[in-house]
Amino acid sequence: MRSPKDFFAPLAVGAPDPVREIPALPSRMIHFFDPSNAKMAAKVPDLAKKVDVLLGNLEDAVRADRKEAARQGLVEIAKATDFGSTQLWTRINSLDSPWVLDDLITLVTEIGDKLDVIMVPKVEGAQDIHYVDRLLAQLEARAGLRRPLLVHAILETASGVANVEEIAGASPRMQGISLGPADLAASRRMKTTRVGGGHPGYLVRTDPVGEDLHEGRTTYQQDLWHYTVARMVDACAMHGILPYYGPFGDIRDVVACEDQFRNAFLLGCVGTWTLHPVQVDIAKRVFSPEPKDVAWARKVIAAMGDGTGAVMIDGKMQDDASVKQCRVVAELADKLAERDPELKQAYDEATKEALA
Ligand SMILES: CCC(=O)SCCNC(=O)CCNC(=O)[C@H](O)C(C)(C)COP(=O)(O)OP(=O)(O)OC[C@H]1O[C@@H](n2cnc3c(N)ncnc32)[C@H](O)[C@@H]1OP(=O)(O)O
Ligand SMILES: O=CC(=O)O
Ligand SMILES: [Mg+2]
User: Fold this and answer.
1) Phi, psi of 174 (to 5 degrees)
2) Closest residue (by CA) to atom 1 of ligand 2?
3) Predicted pLDDT at 309
4) How far lies 224's CA from each of 66, 181, 189, 217, 285, in Å?
């Protein structure tokens, strides 16, 4: 581990200074596309107007014989597209794969000025982030980049979960962490074959009402990912970086997808992955606070003045802690409103009504 005194020193001569604060840019959806797939690539310019983050995926879901094509495709798309204020990320191949070194060398050299964040899969511990950190510094210096690339880890190995706090704090480049439920399930030897989401077998049951152990007992399905998401959120909050839900693989089941996204949102995640265009609007809806909640938050903040003491608003007690909760919602709403004029209007109208 680096000494705290050296934490913000560049790791290579000529590399840009690391950032001291991770920008809280809207990233409600990280939209995955395969840059070697011509149909998906053709949708990128339009998607860039709709999503907060576009991610050119080079890892799993890209065929082994298309890895070079995907890397080259991403370089071409990045050079040809005006992304506006939409961020461009990539997911590189895993650190033990034959492709990752060329992924990093090519992408940083060719499009390092266009890329915002590099997502690193199957991170096991801080050592993986340290390796990427130094290599990126060398490549940034060689490419003459003035802005450091940020790093995002996928939480998808049992040891990654055990080490999540040290991963979150491993480098000033750490932008955030996403849950990777598919690889994580395999790594843990969980017995679900689903990509994210619940499982009907993971449940609790009410007590028996009489002698019959089957009659009248309601069951409630539980969230397989609750523990990991909560732990990830704490690790990220502790280190000032951003937590995300990951993939929801049942593309057809837009209802359960929305539920899973909302659980993550309520627990503290700022966004999710979207794997198919149909998931984009769901993510946008879920990860933007509702106008009525924004209006309430603004009303509490306005009524609390300097935030000290306790007051009653609409029958509910408010104090220092609850005003902080309200600030979380109101500040997120302000950030999203800057990017989204429709949302701004909805938030302002709801606030006007609540304050009237
Ligand atoms: C599980 C662990 C992980 O690592 S998850 C992350 C890795 N996986 C991915 O990135 C998967 C990305 N998504 C996909 O590959 C596709 O959406 C899958 C799931 C295969 C479905 O594709 P397909 O059968 O073509 O769906 P469809 O016919 O409903 O598509 C309609 C049109 O939309 C397009 N499309 C599809 N997905 C995307 C996408 N992610 N980005 C941009 N465009 C997409 C399709 O190409 C299709 O286009 P067209 O209308 O035929 O021109
Ligand atoms: O990469 C994502 C996962 O769920 O595995
Ligand atoms: Mg994975």
Assistant:
1) -65, 115
2) 180
3) 87
4) 33, 9, 13, 21, 23
Report the pLDDT value the prediction gives residue 22, as an integer from 0 to 100: 97
- pTM of structure: 0.97
Query: Do 240 and 92 sit in the same domain of this protein?
Result: yes
Report how many domains make up the chain.
2
Per-residue pLDDT tens digits for 164-178: 999 999 999 999 999
Ligand 1 centroid to residue 303 C-alpha, Å:
47
The answer to whether the CB of 55 falls within 8 A of the CB of 30 is yes
Q: For ligand 2, say whether the CB of 156 is within 6 Å of any of its atoms.
A: yes
Position 305 scores a pLDDT of 73
Known binding-site residue numbers for Mg(2+): 156, 183
DSSP string, 268-309: T--BEEE-STHHHHHHHHHHS--HHHHHHHHHHHHHHTTS-S
Q: Let me know whether 315 and 269 are in one domain.
A: no
Q: What per-residue confidence (pLDDT) applies to 307?
A: 64
d(CA 24, CA 79): 25
* Residue 217 tokens, joined: 């007992």
Q: How far is the CA of 183 from the centre of ligand 2 (A)?
A: 5
Supply the residue whose CA is at minimum distance from atom 51 of ligand 1.
Answer: 39
**Which ligand is nearest the CA of 61, by number?**
1
Structural domain ending residue among the three candidates 235, 270, 287? 287
Q: Ligand 1 test: best mutation among 31, 36, 40, most atoms within 8 Å of CB?
A: 40
Query: 80 with 113, same domain?
Result: yes
Residue with tokens 């790791």: 11
Cα–ligand 1 centroid distance for 25 (angstroms): 25
Q: Which residues of the chain have pLDDT under 50?
A: none
127 & 197 share domain: yes
Please indicate whether residue 119, judged by its CB atom, sits closer than 6 Å to ligand 2: no
Question: Shortest CA distance to 172 belongs to which of 46, 2, 345, 355?
Answer: 2
State whether the beta carbon of 154 lies less than 6 angstroms from ligand 2: yes
Measured between alpha carbons, how far is 128 from 122 in angstroms, rounded to an integer?
Answer: 9
Domain that holds residue 303: 291-355
Closest Cα to atom 4, ligand 1: which residue? 60
